[in-house]
Design a protein that fits this description.
11% strand, single chain, 11 helices, six-stranded mixed beta sheet, globular
Length: 272
């Protein structure tokens, strides 16, 4: 029995290229322990993704990231992985465009993910850190539809646009986490009803494409006194944008879906 085990181990070693000392250098085992070269994610959406309502808005490329959910997410990922693996880069693009609808977003989406991002939009911040070479993102964080539901766009239209974005990203070999839309103040009753009614549609997109769902809406409404605790009181923002506490909740909703797909060395390996 022992002899059989020895031969079995020897066969595995040879199969992996360990027949000689020189060939042994090509074994895959050491590579498993190496961190990814970098981890690049793109947050795509509207003014909520851009961080309207956060105290450190607008974004300053030459200072720390703003206090919207994207910058907070970056900081958490950096603290978790980059401190352990300094040679690994953690990079993000923020492509939150104020006032953008899913129809307009779909037109921009393909160009955004297929070419290195070179144009900065107001409030988006583009790439961070700014000194990092331009690269394509590996993971897309998609949350959009608030502006559609504020208007008269049908659920079918918004659903179709979001599905197209997910499909385009997957065709490019990119991973996607889709987020539900955060609620708005109760005085925007009709819009709140529309947002609440659209949540199952977003969840169905996640199910159909087998992608993680960041349930931002669920995280908000499960927070006590969320309407006053998490929504910006700035009247110029129309009661439709989170405050700093709200962006922290948003960050957690996405982080809880990203970290299960991360290896100990900071590689994103979600199966979908």
């Amino acid at each position: 029995m022992k002899i059989k085990k020895v031969f079995l181990l020897a066969a595995i070693f040879l199969t992996l290229g360990g027949g000689t000392a020189e060939a042994g250098k090509s074994l895959y085992f050491p590579l498993i322990l190496r961190p990814c070269a970098d981890f690049v994610f793109l947050a795509y959406g509207d003014s909520i993704t851009a961080g309207y309502g956060a105290t450190a808005f607008p974004f300053d490329l030459y200072s720390i990231p703003h206090s919207g959910y994207v910058g907070r997410l970056y900081e958490d990922l950096k603290d978790e992985f980059k401190q352990r693996y300094p040679q690994q880069d953690i990079v993000f693009y923020n492509m939150g465009i104020g006032g953008q609808t899913t129809a307009g977003g779909l037109e921009l989406f393909k160009a955004t993910i297929t070419e290195p991002i070179q144009t900065c939009y107001y409030g988006s911040g583009c790439i961070y850190p700014p000194a990092h070479p331009e690269v394509k993102p590996q993971l897309i964080l998609l949350m959009e539809g608030t502006n559609d539901l504020h208007g008269d766009s049908s659920y079918y239209e918004v659903d179709s646009n979001l599905r197209s974005m997910v499909a385009i990203a997957q065709q490019q070999g990119m991973k996607v986490v889709i987020g539900t839309i955060p609620p708005v103040c109760s005085n925007l009753g009709y819009m709140q009803q529309r947002i609440e009614g659209f949540q199952p549609w977003i969840k169905k997109i996640a199910q159909d494409f087998l992608i993680p769902l960041a349930d931002v809406f669920g995280y908000f409404v499960s927070t006590p006194n969320w309407e006053t605790a998490l929504i910006s009181a700035d009247p110029d923002l129309g009661c439709e944008h989170p405050n700093d506490a709200g962006y922290a909740v948003m960050k957690q909703a996405f982080l809880d879906q990203i970290t299960p797909g991360m290896t100990a060395t900071g590689c994103y390996t979600s199966p979908h």
